[in-house]
Structure formats: structure tokens, C-alpha cells
Amino acid sequence: MKQKSYAVLVSNAGVVVVHKGVRILLDGLYKDLGKNFTDLPEWAWKLMKKGKGELANVDYLLFSHSHYDHYYSPYFNEYMAVNNVKGICFPPIDETPGLAAAEAEYVDKIIKFDQNNEAVLEQDIKLKVFTTRHVDKQYYNVPNQCFRLDLDGTKLAFLSDVDYFEEAFAEEEDFIADIAFVTPIFYNHPKGRRILRENMKVKETIIYHLPSPEDDRFMYFKMAQRDVEKNAVAGEKVFIWNESGQNISF
Questions:
Q1: C-alpha separations of 84 from 69, 167, 181, 245, 250 in Å
Q2: Which is nearest to 149 in space by CA: 168, 177, 115, 174?
Q3: Does some domain include residue 212?
Q4: Within a domain: residue 75?
């Protein structure tokens, strides 16, 4: 019987993907210093920094960009001190405290990409990275890495805080995916939905990077829910993830 692969929301934009026993954690070592989203579950972080629990000793760490709600140097360093990791994709280097030093310390674990920005992580796991700008105008100078995992032919794209910049996606012709993880801001914009449908040919969309219900002071969930209902297309599947543990199998 074929073992199912799955993705699980840790919190915020932190997602763990499991395929044939290989675990990949995306944007999962972060801290919400701005109090706009939700911190890592305290119980999970207590275990992770002791090298225990389901999120300990993951095989690969992927970080989309350097904002603290996606990558937090103190958490990264604490995690690496007690956990064994095969490969890391750091955020693009900038002035974020501790980022350059962390990359220098773990240079031997940095995932190497070819000229097509692709890498083979394991026999049945390929990774592609596509870099463009952040959605927030004040952070246009912060490159946002979009990741696509190809797991035995099933393609998952994690767009993180990418801008709905159609020209960039048009140039990246082969960045198609079966399942795409996007922010409510991206899905809210007509250009974002058009990118998903026309450029990426997505079959299922998961809206993530929302606060947990108790922290949702800007009502991102209601906005996402309204957008999904308003823009429903026959045959299109859209889910909203705002609680730890939500998951999808494929």
C-alpha cells in the first residue's frame, strides 16, 4: 500500500511536509515580534529546542525571506544546536541580525541549486526556488523566495509573502503546481487569483499565513472566507488554514 504524503500547518506560515519519511519544515523557526500573527505553539518550541517531538531533527529547513515572522535567528541557532538537519535554504542575505553569521556557520548544509534554480533533495524529492519581490511596497527590497516541492510528481508551491506581480510569474513559465499555499492578501487580489489559475495551473489553493482565531485582530479569516465565497469557480478547491494541525494528504 502506498504511503500517503501530507502537509501540516504548524502555525502562521510554518508548514511541515512529510514524504516517504522525509520531513521538510518551511518558515517554521520564527517569532511574531510585531504581534500581528501567532507565535510558534509554546509546547512545540519547548520540544524543538530540546531536540524532541515530531518537529525535531527535520531533514530540510526552507526559509522564504528574512522577516522575523518567517525566520528568527535566535530560534534558528537554538534549533541547530540540538537538532540534526541535512540541508538548509536560507533567506537571501541582508542586514537581518545573525543571518549572515548563521549562513557562514552552516555553509556545508546549504542546498545547492542548478542553473534552473532546481535541486534534488532525495531520490523522489525535487525543490525549485523562484525569487521575486515582497508584496508590501515598503519591503520591495526584500526578496521573497517561493518554493516548489515535487514529490513523486505531486507539486506543492509555497508562495509566502510574494507580490501578485504577473510579469514575474509570466517569465517563470514552468512554475506550475497542483497545490499552492498563498496569503489572504495574494488571493484577495484579482492578479493573485489569475496567477494561480492561468500561470500556475493550480488545482487546489490553501490560504495560509493567518493568525490563529484568538489573535486575528485584523479579521484576515473573514476576509479570506468572503473572498473564497465571492470568487468561487466550478471545480476549484480552496481551503483556509488558520489553526495548528490543519493538514492535507496527497
A1: 23, 39, 27, 24, 27
A2: 177
A3: yes
A4: yes
Residue carrying C-alpha cell 513559465 = 173
CA torsion sign for 219, 224, 225, 227 is positive
For the record, the C-alpha cell of 132 comes out as 521575486
Overall domain count for the chain = 1
For the four alpha carbons of 65, 245, 16 and 53, in that order, the dihedral sign comes to: positive
Q: What is the DSSP letter of 245?
A: T
**0.90 exceeded by the pTM?**
yes
Q: How many residues does the chain have?
A: 250
**CATH assignment of the domain containing 176:** 3.60.15.10
**Other Cβ atoms closer than 10 A to 242:** 24
Closest by CA position to 14, among listed 151, 220, 211: 211
* In-domain check, residue 236: yes
Write out the H or E segment, with its range, that includes residue 127. strand 125-133
Q: Which residues of 157-189 are buried (b: 16+ CB within 10 A; e: fewer)?
A: bbbbbbbbbeebbeebeebebbbbbbbbbbbbe
Q: In this predicted model, what pLDDT tens digit does every residue of 80-109 receive, in sequence order?
A: 999 999 999 999 999 999 999 999 999 999
Task: Decide if pLDDT at 1 tops 80.
Answer: no
The x, y and z cell numbers of residue 35, run together, are 504581534
Q: What pLDDT does residue 32 have?
A: 87
Q: Look up the domain containing 189 and give its range.
A: 6-249
Distance of CA 203 to the CA centre of its chain: 18
Residue 1, domain member (yes or no) = no
Give dist(CA 31, CA 35) in Å, integer.
Answer: 9
